[in-house]
Specification:
Order of helices and strands: HHHH
Number of helices: 4
Largest sheet: none
Shape: elongated
Strand content: under 5%
Distance between the termini: 44 Å
Oligomer: single chain
Radius of gyration: 14 Å
Helix content: over 70%
Length: about 80
Amino acid sequence: MNYIDVIGMLAGGLTTVSLVPQVLKIWRTRSANDISLGMFALFGLGVVLWLADGLLIDALPVIVANAVTLVLTLTIILMKWRFGG
């Protein structure tokens, strides 16, 4: 892995991990009232497109970061539907 991939992995890792506190807060409080479903739906669509881009250009950092981000985003959307608001 070259230094460009390392930078990409670090950038993707940090932005992906930024969703974890939100997932944990919704899970602990069982409340998603303050979460915007529209924002996360649009964000999720963007992540799907980034993932497709990563697959098309065979960029491992883009693929890994966006695959994990998509899972976290879908988790937030599902908890929004489950816990409400």
